[in-house]
Amino acid sequence: MSPPTNKAELLEMMECGYTAFEAFLAPLSEAQLTESGVSGDWSLKDILVHLATWQGRAAQILEAAQRNEQPQLTPSIKTDEEVDQFNHATFAANRSRPPVEVKQDFHASYQQILAATEALSEEDLFDPGHFAWMKGNALWTVAKGDTFGHYDEHKPTIEAWLARQRF
């Protein structure tokens, strides 16, 4: 898939990615959503928590950009090890949440990142030098990385797990 070249393309890619991922998950039962082992100990529900959490963090970055501020996320995550620690802590903190609640959070976090993206200008999103704290990267990569890019990262693992199941 070619990267977006403007805001309209980015928004379309976000919408298409979200809609496709939702459609992919829609026929799955609660048993399928809560069965561990999809990715390590994670269930599909745990992957949705993970995706929702990262969508929420990305939305906070985009919202800070709207205010022309450098994001101040807690915890601050700079290394792969810190990413792994954050993911593990998120998994542990949300393990017992019901699937319906997790799905609602996934939807709400997507709406949050979509609204934050819509509120930014094309220059904000596509000029790699616009925000010094992005260190030469265009802001649209944040939206991609935690929406359709992130779904695409996890979908093959989910598909492989589903192919092995006998639900």
From TrEMBL:
This is DinB-like domain-containing protein. Pfam families: DUF1706 (PF08020). InterPro entries: DinB/YfiT-like, DUF1706.
